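Good morning C.,

I know you're traveling, so I'll keep this short. The sequence:
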Amino acid sequence: MDAAGELEAIVRTTPSLLRALEVAREVDAPDWLIGAGAVRSAVWDRLHGFTEPTPPGDVDLAFFDPADLSREHARDVEAALRERAPELPWEATNQAAVHLWYDDDVEPLRSTAEAIATWPETATAVALRLDAGDRLTIVAPFGLDDLFAMVVRYNPARATVADFNRRVASKRFTERWPRARVVAA
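The tokens, ready to paste straight into the viewer:
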């Protein structure tokens, strides 16, 4: 089985992740994807043979809606997700508004897929969508090799080395998943 097939098998047998995808599909925010830690944790838990999944710190739903850049819009999407699945720790972010977080001139993103390519680690820059026909779309701008090799590698697209190092320290990747390996930035 190739990496995409293996990822799909893991997703379809990880109840909380599959539930998140189904709920996101119901809410249907523009150009939505679920990614980051929810996907990485599901894969790394499976590769480590954990019988109890790592509880997600959050379920990141990235969406893209340039028509409404307000924080309230993202909060409304998050509220709709929580209404349907209050047991999941949702975090919805309108990727069309991310450039507003920066003090210097940062170009606006053009899509959720483009945003995924700016996430700080290549193994975490993987996102998913479940369509109405129950087909899974995988967005992985750096491929799936680092995800399945459990390699935490710096992505310089937007994060600084200092940001990456802070994330590595706070996420404690190698403590949670002893077979994971961090590549120094």
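Safe travels,
E.
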